[in-house]
Amino acid sequence: MSSPAEAATPVQLCFKMNGSCSRTLHPFGVQLTIYVVCAAGVLLTIMGNLLVVISIFHFKILHTPTNFLLLSLALADLLLGLTVLPFSTIRSVESCWYFGDDFCRLHTFLDTVFCLTSIFHLCFISVDRHCAICDPLLYPTKFTIRVACIYIALGWGVPVVYTSIFLYSKRIEEGLGQFLQDMPCIGSCQLLFNKLWGWINFPVFFFPCLIMIGLYIKIFIVATRQAKQISNMNKISKGSQHQTGVAKRERKAAKTLGIAVGIYLFCWLPFTVDTIIDSLLDFITPPVVFDVLIWFAYFNSACNPLIYVFSYRWFRKAVKLILTCQVFSTRTSTIDLYQEELSIVGRANMVGPI
């Protein structure tokens, strides 16, 4: 016979039907706190990446191959914040999925596409920085706007095709029936191929990261050697000073993007490793731990704009112009954001190469 306490606290289900998932109940204060934290993270992701998109799109001096890759990366993070994170917030707090199986599949599709797009773009940006630092003389001819557009098309196209095959192909679903024996309960939104999905996604995450790490090790070695050479170039002409400034700018960009890659690995590696271990041990990770890991990975999408704020003076200037609504003036699109002093009237017609 059950105790009165047990009778007073029945198990809450997501839906009033057989096979429904159980719902984790939090005290109101805890639930409100989680909602506020998640909402703040979503808002930071959306607003930060929106500022990056507007900055690079509006200011003509920022229309460079590297910045177009940054623009596409910010767009992926922005769409993640707009289309994925709000529903992930509700799922994490309520521990139930209330939006149906079809939208669950679409949500999983968008989540996977945007996350894979981010890592592909970071990998391509690493290639770009490697060319700029290690082969500066040929860089302008090797990494053009056309090449950047090809990389952007690959960065979006490959994740879309890859994810579509595994989430929307009936033939794949029928051929992998042995992986679907343990169907999730009703009210759960899990990846379709539980055990296989972790093993398939691991090399997609691991090999681009391995490429990025290798490239940035070489970039660090070359940049260190260049820094020593630049320190000995004080007695040079004005034209050479311009070249030195460009070299310093390239090194600063490489350092900043290296930090972005490091933070990406820091945010995503725990979730990726847990996915592999979980598939081997029949998914023993508690739901709370899984939610913490996935939101830790999501947090990476909010980090890049913060990195740009602290690292790029041109981004801080662009944000100031955006927040003060000065971008509505057509003259501001030609401002040279790389100048030490910013004057809209005096520099509106100045456009120089990055």
UniProtKB/TrEMBL annotation:
Gene3D superfamilies: Rhodopsin 7-helix transmembrane proteins. Residues 48-308 form the G-protein coupled receptors family 1 profile domain. SUPFAM superfamilies: Family A G protein-coupled receptor-like (SSF81321). InterPro entries: GPCR_2-like_7TM (IPR017981), GPCR_Rhodpsn (IPR000276), GPCR_Rhodpsn_7TM (IPR017452), TAAR (IPR050569), TAAR_fam (IPR009132). One of its GO terms (molecular function) is trace-amine receptor activity. One of its GO terms (biological process) is cell surface receptor signaling pathway. This is Trace amine-associated receptor 5 isoform X1.
